Amino acid sequence: MFSLQSKIAIVTGGAKEIGEATCHSFAQQGAMVRLIDIDIPNALRVASAIGACGQAHNCDVTAPDAVTHTIDEIARNHDRLDILVNNAGAGHIGKLDATTEKDLDSMYTINVRSVYFCTRAALPHMKKSGGGSIINLSSIVSTVGIPDRFAYSASKGAVAAMTRSIAVDYLEDGIRCNSVAPARVHTPFVDAYLEKYYPDAQNEMFSQLSRVQPLGRMATPEEVAALICYLASDENAFLTGASLPMDGGAFTLQP
Ligand SMILES: NC(=O)c1ccc[n+]([C@@H]2O[C@H](COP(=O)([O-])OP(=O)(O)OC[C@H]3O[C@@H](n4cnc5c(N)ncnc54)[C@H](O)[C@@H]3O)[C@@H](O)[C@H]2O)c1
Known about the structure:
By secondary structure, the chain is an alpha/beta fold. It has two domains: 8-183 and 220-246, NAD(P)-binding Rossmann-like Domain (Rossmann fold); 185-218, no CATH class. 46% of the residues lie in helices and 15% in strands. It contains eight helices and seven strands, in the order E-H-E-H-E-H-E-H-E-H-E-H-H-H-E. It has helices at residues 17-28, 40-50, 64-78, 101-128, 150-169, 188-197, 202-211, 221-232; strands at residues 8-12, 32-37, 54-58, 83-86, 132-137, 175-182, 243-246. A seven-stranded parallel sheet has the order 3-2-1-4-5-6-7, sandwiched between helices. Helix 3 packs parallel to helix 4 (101-128) and helix 4 (101-128) packs parallel to helix 5. The longest helix is centred in the middle third of the chain and has 28 residues, at 101-128. The protein is globular. The two termini are 34 Å apart. The site of nicotinamide-adenine-dinucleotide has 27 residues, from helix 1 and strand 2. Nicotinamide-adenine-dinucleotide binds at residues 12-13, 15-19, 36-39, 60-62, 87-91, 110, 137, 139, 182, 184-185, 187, 189.
């Protein structure tokens, strides 16, 4: 079940956290993993940990020409492309009146335009390969109002909408497109945030953030990666256009 044997998979932002865990899951399932990132030392570290089926590419997903060049090169080398995970992204904290135009544009560039550029470059190769699976990283903020996340929410709402649009437009090409909407995932970003803003109450704030998810904890990158792996697999052939919560019940439960 869930084999990705012989599939060619691109993971953007594969050098760290959710992207890194996804690269490992894909490799364990037999995929050839091509990770795209601007963090070269970590991208090389992940590729080398994966071994022969891993390869790192230095590419900024906000630069359209570089994206097209890199994805064309990967697909041509293997004469196919099966999976694209649009994972590279960034966060922003602030209400509307604490968000500058520059902040908003920067969220749009890294979280929205990058998905457009990478998907645009991947589509012709997936069509030629007879189909494919695209997985976008959205967020709980695409459906739930989370305080202090104005620009980030706007960008991830766009990711969920783009997912549906891509899914419906390429049905006949055998290309599926789904998004994953995690609530809080425990990554170094969370620890750094608590250290910076709550130096004297880190444990208390960590518990508070954990309790936002009714399951009482944050997700792990590996749990998100497992869902991405399922979405990429042929066992998931009947699911497209969906936004799947990875949220410990935060979307639906009020204990
Ligand atoms: N961590 C969470 O709690 C959480 C929750 C919901 C959604 N998400 C989403 O999941 C995705 C991954 O999150 P994460 O916490 O693992 O992020 P992260 O910041 O730990 O890693 C992001 C990766 O993307 C790379 N990257 C950033 N800008 C890039 C660019 N211009 N070109 C190429 N690579 C670039 C970074 O170098 C890094 O390796 C993001 O889209 C994020 O919005 C995360």
